[in-house]
Specification:
It is a single chain. With about 110 residues, the protein is mostly helical. The chain is about 90% helix and about 0% strand. It has one domain.
């Protein structure tokens, strides 16, 4: 083998190695790119879900605070009531008691 053939053979081998390495890198890049697209889709979906749940929490917190306020107002109304009934509740006391029970249950469920 002559010196020229040897150099030509080395250039050819080096060129094919570079080409092989290029295609391996290209395949790896494509795999990573596909995985990145899947993760981006998943991330966007989870961000939307997170925002929806944050809004729901905000609404539930407002409901909880409103229920607490309603319960406090109901207790005050019951305390200031002019009715001095005994064990038999009058219509007004019974209504207030039912409202109190409902509000307590609502607060327990939300908490």
């Amino acid at each position: 083998m002559t010196k020229g053939e040897s150099e030509s053979s080395q250039v050819s081998t080096t060129s094919s190695n570079k080409c092989e390495n290029y295609f391996q890198l290209l395949d790896a890049f494509q795999e990573i790119h596909e995985e990145a697209k899947r993760l981006t889709f998943s991330n966007n979906r989870l961000k939307c879900e997170n925002n929806r749940l944050k809004m729901k929490i905000t609404v539930l917190e407002k409901d909880l605070n409103q229920s607490k306020t309603d319960l406090e107002n109901s207790d005050l109304m019951h305390e200031r009531s002019s009715c001095k009934c005994d064990s038999n509740f009058c219509k007004n006391c019974k209504s207030l008691q039912e409202k109190d029970l409902y509000l307590v249950k609502t607060i327990d469920v939300i908490s």
